[in-house]
Amino acid sequence: QVQLEETGGGLVRAGDSLRLTCAATGRGFSFYGMGWFRQAPGKDREFVGAISWSGGATYYSNSVKGRFTISRDNPKKELYLQMNSLQPDDTGVYYCAQDRLRRPDTFATIPPADFGTWGQGTQVTVSS
Question: What pLDDT is attached to residue 112?
Fold first, then answer.
């Protein structure tokens, strides 16, 4: 089982950038797709993006495509989310997650309650 911990959140202004890191401990990080999700106050958790086990394929929601980039470093057991041109609508708690049963190109369709392993989340607040 893998344990996940997100860091790097904070308070920024619109147009700024942030880089989130998801550090994994335990076994099995390198063999599975990983995803980033976010949850704004009063809203459901939503898919942000996903990456294949090798890092060779990435998938993004339409709302972040072209602004956010997911990458991973398997030897370090780390997952990253580079967020550029941040907007107030990007505000929320950001979570990394792993699912060992399904392909990362399907992560956007999986109900959060059915997903595998979650981190505890990191708050991102974007002021206008």
Answer: 86
